[in-house]
């Protein structure tokens, strides 16, 4: 990147899961079908004359929960403010938000990136309300849907700490996961309940000065976010290198042009004229509320019994990733599968407790059990999986057989022994039959026998293979070899 | 029977209780006279044409000191489902709210009869009702004069026997000043005592529903009825557990109370000489009733008005941003055909009157980047100083005294050209709003031109009942009786019913 | 007068208000009177101290305590359309 480094921060607007809207009693529901538009509206969220807002405490509780989880400072007394600007999706001509006193300040999101645990410090997170949704119609007019107007929003702002678009995505994925796990938001980008607006500047490597930043809006997937940021880094670098100056402006990603273009916002040049919302008393948070949020956050912790030790992980994947990768030396991709799927992580600990073979256990859980369990939608107890792994390791069944046994257990609910029996695997042949088959094989493979007698011991493997084939895999190859040696007087 | 129209509400309810008359009979009479005199004063923006059987036939219920089966006029800035509600603005012409204001719901629940929606200065911005987007209201005492404002129609309707009680709103004297001009009582409670839900906002932190009546007791009945907790208004502080009527009746003694006369508002440079004389007369009566009269100084008195106009304009610029003609009001039908820019400028340029535009621009100015520190924040700090000074003064005195208005009702058009001159007529009333204390305008005497002049008492924050008890004691000592303006009296005499 | 006219233009744009042709001159005059009037507060230069909260009440009930129910008249609009936006 020719000696320039990117400095990126992100603003995320999260729709907070709640039965009701932020300031009225309408259901907080995003429109799925256009025929449902404007069904969930009332004079309050439509900004009719004379109405007043009344705060929804569910969204406050959810925000406190997040605040505890992310170690934020919780304001004991925060004041709502009006952000004034004109746009048809803003029914009152102002958005009720928090300005001087956000409910949450500071704190951090831990995320796992490039093999290590990293921290993204937060500047603030504040409560506000969503705007209406604009549908662009073919006849050039626009249709306004006020179902979204007033849905509780949390605006989360990070410090400008990221240096690459991929790192931003790693952070966002983790934040999204935490929000979902804590049931604070569905955090779905396509549905619009998780909207990211990165701000970005570049500076010469080694410099600590922040240069002019631009903001990018309307990004609807991580893919476009990466493309837009990469483009913008390139563009800004070129601007500075050519001796020009980067303008402070708001950009959007143009999918057709595959580039960022400035939004034509001259008309609404921001002067938001913030002032205290006179219709709402200060939001006062009591110690009891904070204590409740703390207890709530504890409920979402993951507890893992690992080798007799109890490990506690906060909601999210980062700390688990760190444990799996740095302590257990799992590959990042394996670790991710376990961190994203709590039940597998639990299985891992329980199966490992019995097998004491981490490598085998991981292979059997991720490669064999996981796809099977997901296609059949069946769960097996850790004991079954562990038993199978052990039997296989003792050589009672082959890998291929073990796979079949696992499938049968999953499908039928049979025990490992029952499945092995039904499949006719590992049934120890009686000595008579073994002697008969081995004798037969010796007779039919005179060439190999001659080789063996001439000292070419590897040829014994040919005979073992032939016996195994003859027995349909029911014999233990080690025992077969013993038998053959005995019969050949070796 | 028709002379019953000049009774007070509690006198009227006594007649109901004694079965001397039914609410339906009274409502029909009320409506007939209100409609007859209406063309001469224009109190209303919409006036009911018939008494609905449904409303009228409900028998009077003798409830505990509540207002019940009383004809009430409601300022057209309070939302009503069954009357268009315009806030006096063209931008809301024909707008029918999908809900009732809380105070309106309560009036209906208690079987009161809403006569109509009274005229006002557009969005309550004005002191003469000449800024109505429709037509001015005339003062029933002299139809060449204004009734005051912004709740001018409310005051004139109670004076002109069109309603027994009127609901107005008082952001900076908008109930008390017209009460003074029309010779009726006007009360502005402590902020939050009455729900603001459904009150179309002008300056939210100062807006408060106010009450017009013909005596103090009726205010107490109205407060008993209307002052209730409201889940729809987060700033409402009403508890509903005080009986104002009982309180007044049990607290008639004024002996030894201290009344502070705000000297800065008794200054002949500001206040009309005749008004001052009438104030002195009232103070003599109070002294005779054992009240100790002391003079108090209020700092920054010259700053009250600019401070008030900065704060209210700032909030107004935000409160009035919702009128864009997209969801309701003027311009809704053209919205799909206009580009957005046209939509805003057309609707707001045509829909708002001059005074409203001036205040929106002023409000935008004092809040905008670089100016908020110099204007808006200074005014907020000044307001704190005013509140602190008032609290300190109330440590020394029980009540405060000032004229309600520097002059009696002025001529139509007299101050229309100069907004600052018009604003100056609010000098005595804005204090109560800025300091957030209850205040009442009591009709005093008639001046030489037979125009009413009011005096103003203010009480401690939250001590609304105590203030009303004091005003009641004064009313009794001064033997005040409701006076019907001569023009109205004559109309009533000629009224065939 | 020129300054005030420019200021008015800026404020009109910020407030999405247009002045009718006949209003303009009178308006400029009235507005400069208003500015002189509020200048008084600016010139006070009060020491920066704590500002009184706009809402003195310290507690609030929430919409969960009492859900707000509305009954709508039949004519309540559900189709909100507008024309071209700035960006289109
Ligand atoms: Mg925001
Ligand atoms: Zn709603």
How are the SSEs ordered, and which strands pair?
The complex is a heterotrimer of chains A (490), B (497) and C (88).
Chain A: E1 4-15, H1 57-69, E2 73-74, E3 77-78, E4 80-84, E5 94-98, E6 104-105, E7 108-113, E8 116-129, E9 133-136, E10 142-145, E11 152-158, H2 165-181, E12 194-204, E13 214-217, H3 222-241, E14 250-254, E15 259-262, E16 275-276, E17 283-284, H4 287-299, E18 302-306, E19 309-313, H5 318-327, H6 332-340, H7 342-355, H8 358-376, H9 382-393, H10 399-412, H11 416-423, H12 431-444, H13 446-453, H14 459-470, H15 477-487
Parallel strand pairs in A: 13-14
Antiparallel strand pairs in A: 1-11, 1-12, 2-6, 3-17, 4-5, 4-16, 6-8, 7-8, 8-11, 9-10, 12-13, 14-15, 18-19
Helix pairs in contact in A: 1-4, 2-3, 5-6, 6-7, 7-8, 7-9, 8-10, 9-10, 10-11, 12-14, 12-15, 13-14, 14-15
Chain B: H1 9-17, H2 23-41, E1 44-47, H3 53-56, E2 71-75, H4 102-109, E3 113-118, H5 152-159, E4 165-169, H6 176-182, E5 185-188, E6 209-213, H7 216-226, H8 244-250, E7 258-262, H9 273-288, E8 292-296, H10 304-319, H11 340-351, H12 354-367, H13 376-393, E9 399-403, H14 419-424, H15 430-435, E10 439-446, E11 452-458, H16 464-477, H17 486-494
Parallel strand pairs in B: 2-3, 2-4, 7-8, 7-9
Antiparallel strand pairs in B: 1-3, 4-6, 5-6, 5-10, 9-11, 10-11
Chain C: H1 2-15, H2 24-44, E1 80-82
The site of magnesium ion has 4 residues of chain A, from loops.
